[in-house]
Write a structure and sequence with these properties.
Elements (H helix, E strand, L loop, with lengths): L4 E4 L2 E4 L4 H11 L11 H19 L8 H7 L2 H12 L5 H12 L1
Helix pairs in contact: 1-2
Length: 106
Amino acid sequence: MGKHSISINNTDYPCRLTMGAMLEFRRRTGQEVTEMQGTDIALVITLIFCCLVSSCRADGVELPFKDEMDMADHMSPEDLSGWQNENFQAQADPCETEKAQSKKKG
């Protein structure tokens, strides 16, 4: 599971994929999150903003940015990749990893 926050300009904000974030994404883009291509930077930024909006609303945290562009203006490529890696990188099952390693030995 991801860290449920994003670091933007060295400040951590709550930012996790919720049902509210998926609804917000649908309202803003007309697309479902499941239809999204990971290489479309505009959609990725919009998804992160929707996650930020939903998480801040759920956690009672004041939303720090007025819109996607405001958020993106404060983000570095490292902020983006850090959040993506924490939240969407395939997580290996430790048991499966151990099985694969023992097969190599045997």
